[in-house]
Amino acid sequence: MLSAVFSKHSDAQIQGRNFTEEKVMEASRTLFIPVILGTARMGRMSLHAAELVAGELGKCEGVATDLIDIAKLPLPTNDAGEAIKQPDFSTKVSKADALVVVSPEYNHGYSGLLKHVLDSCLKEYIHKAVGIVGVSAGPFGGTRVIQNLLPVMRELGLVTIFWDVNFSSVRKVFADDGKLLDESYIRRIDKFLKELIWMAKTLRHGREQVSLD
Amino acid sequence: MADLATNNNKMICQRCGVEMNHHCDKLVYTTDPEEAGGRDPSLGGFIEEIHTCPECGAAASRHA
């Protein structure tokens, strides 16, 4: 695949360096795409959605992932923003090429804790891709929480993709033990992840090679 | 992480020793009096430059 993509540049030399070799090395570095589980509520069905997406991400060649459960991040609530930056979370976001945010829809919005966590970093996000997975007990699959998250993502410097995954009537999608009951979600997640990975690769190239000046 | 600058004002990756790519200027509004001195009056905030290493992907930033 890589040789096909880059073969047309095989004779190119840029500034005395071998273009093909550099591009192949750049493209072959593992992408890191963690999945953020955006709720701490007891009995959260979003956990199953996050585990499913992380599992599918883990099957993608050249991609490493991790499930970040915001309920387990020891962030204080007597301050906010970068003042409460948590080293592990900051390191993972810095290392990330893209993020998946899995968010339930609570009263048409996202959880306050998710915003609290997201706000603890800033430059770690810049020019990285993000895909959003909405989860709801009702029929709309978190569409409203996804819409509400878009301006937040934009201000953080993240680049949103145009594929979402919407888990509607989530109690019908997963059994209590997390078993997937509707296999059609696998295809939707596959399309979502392909777009996210493309954007992650493209933005990594941009961050590393395309100058603002 | 990388906070060194060369003569041409490029940041240098401390891990790889190569020039980093300046790919973003982020406008930051602040209420911190210590940072207020760096505020660009025409923008209303200060510019945080974001740089990424082309070798290892490490990111760094500095005030413009």
Describe what is shown at a glance.
The complex is a heterodimer of chains A (213) and B (64). With 213 residues, chain A is α/β, with parallel strands linked by helices.
Provide tags for this entry:
heterodimer, A: 213 residues, alpha/beta, Rossmann fold, two-stranded antiparallel sheet, disordered N terminus, B: 64 residues, mainly beta, N-terminal domain of TfIIb, 3-stranded antiparallel sheet, 5 strands, 38% strand
CATH structural architecture of chain A = 3-Layer(aba) Sandwich
Poorly predicted regions of chain B are none
Instruction: State the separation between the terminal residues of chain B, measured CA to CA.
Output: 16 Å
**And the CATH topology of chain A?**
Rossmann fold
Any overview of this molecule?
- The complex is a heterodimer of chains A (213) and B (64).
- Helix content of chain A is 41%, strand content 16%.
- The model of chain A is unreliable at 1-17 (pLDDT under 50).
- Chain A is an alpha/beta fold and 213 residues long.
- In chain A, helix 5 links the parallel strand 7 (98-104) and strand 8 (128-135).
- Chain A has a single domain, classed as Flavodoxin domain (Rossmann fold, 3-Layer(aba) Sandwich), CATH 3.40.50.360.
- The longest helix of chain A has 26 residues, at 184-209.
- Chain B has 64 residues and is mainly β.
- The longest helix of chain B is centred in the middle third of the chain and has 4 residues, at 33-36.
- The A-B interface holds A 26, 29, 94, 97, 122-124, 126-127, 157, 204, 206-213 and B 21-26, 28, 48, 50, 52-54, 57-59, 61.
Outline the fold blueprint.
The complex is a heterodimer of chains A (213) and B (64).
Chain A (H helix, E strand, L loop, with lengths): L1 H5 L6 E2 L2 E2 H10 L2 E2 L2 E3 L8 H13 L4 E2 L2 E3 L17 H9 L2 E7 L7 H7 L9 E8 L7 H14 L1 E3 L4 E3 L2 H4 L10 H26 L4
Chain B lengths: L3 E2 L5 E2 L8 E8 L4 H4 L9 E7 L6 E5 L1
Antiparallel strand pairs in B: 1-2, 3-4, 4-5
